[in-house]
Structures are given as C-alpha cells and as structure tokens.
Structure of DNA-binding response regulator:
Amino acid sequence: MTTVVVADDQPVICAGFAALLAAQPDLDVVGTAANGRELVSLVEQHRPDVALVDVRMPVLDGIEATRLITRDHDTRVLILTTFDLDAYVYDAIRAGASGFLLKDVTADRLVDGVRLVAEGSMLLGPAVSRRLVADFASRRTAPAPASPALDGLSPRETEVLHQLARGRSNAEIAAELFIATETVKSHVAEVLRKLGLRDRIQAVVFAYEQGLVQPGG
C-alpha cells in the first residue's frame, strides 16, 4: 500500500484529488493540507510515501515545503502546477521534487504519476523537460567543478547517466544501449547510490551542472 498526502489551498481541488487517489486499492490517502505548514506537519506525522503538492499555497508555499520535506524525510514530492511554464518549476526541482503534473491532468495520469513517483521514477512532461533544459542553459555560465564521484562510475554507468539526463525511460535506455530493462534499473540504482543522489531528477540536475550533457545534445 502506497501512502499519500495531498496539499492544495483550494478545498474542492484538494478533496477531488484525495478522493480519486483514495478510490484506488493500492493507494491510501492519510491526510490533506491547505497550506505548506500543514503539509510539513502531516509528513512528519505520517511519513507518507508520496506528497501531492500544489506550488502556490499560503503560509508556506509548495517549494519551501518541498525543500523541508525532502531534507528531513524519504517522502517523494509530486508537484501540481497550473501552467507548464510555471516560473517555479526549476526551483521546485532544486528543492527536491520528483516530478510535475498539470492540474488539468487526466484521472488515470494522476494515479499513474503517484505510483511512478512512489517507485522512484522521474515524472516530467515534455514541455516541462524542455523548460528545465532551457533554464539550465540560461542560468549556467560554466559547468560546476567536476565531482570526484564521477570517477567511481563505470563506463556503462556513465552512459546511463547521460541517458537519464535526456529524460529517457528505462525502456528507452535499454533500447539505446542494447541491454535488458532490468539491467538498466540496476545501473540507475548504482548511479544514484554512487553519486549520492535521491532520484532521477537529481541525476538530470547533476548531469547538466557538471556539463556532461549540453542542452539539445
């Protein structure tokens, strides 16, 4: 059973998302919050697997709440945003969010998104991915100093990291590198472990900051 909390300052939306998720046999909604402070308290109390979080909330916004949650807990955060060009997308990723969904998402997509994030997958729509790459291109004047941890990656793991940075799924990586999907999963886990990264989104951030992948490359 995957435990979930939902945070949104619009009661109807919050209740709707919570009801949809609670109707799934494998999802358990353990609480809802109307602002970021309530959300952080809920996470501290229940330690859910996933927090579905609106960006714009009173008292404490979704970005700062995400930062506090991912700093202190293993809960994965799935951000809800009204616009795919939301100016907060980049900051939320840096705060530790594991993915994004637009608020007009279909019911099936929302449910699948929660499940995927709970499993450790990265969830970025194409438009958000393109904006993320553009943000890195505009904000970075030079690559960050090379991380010594890169030396610990095998050649194959380095290839997998490059593929992760392009937002590719395990199946797409497997096809590109002519290896089994289960082998890809193993390599991804090792990449994250060796680099001390939380999830695939952090791997994307790391790869671009290190200059391993160029926008459009």
User: Anything to note?
Assistant: The chain has two domains: 2-134, 141-209.
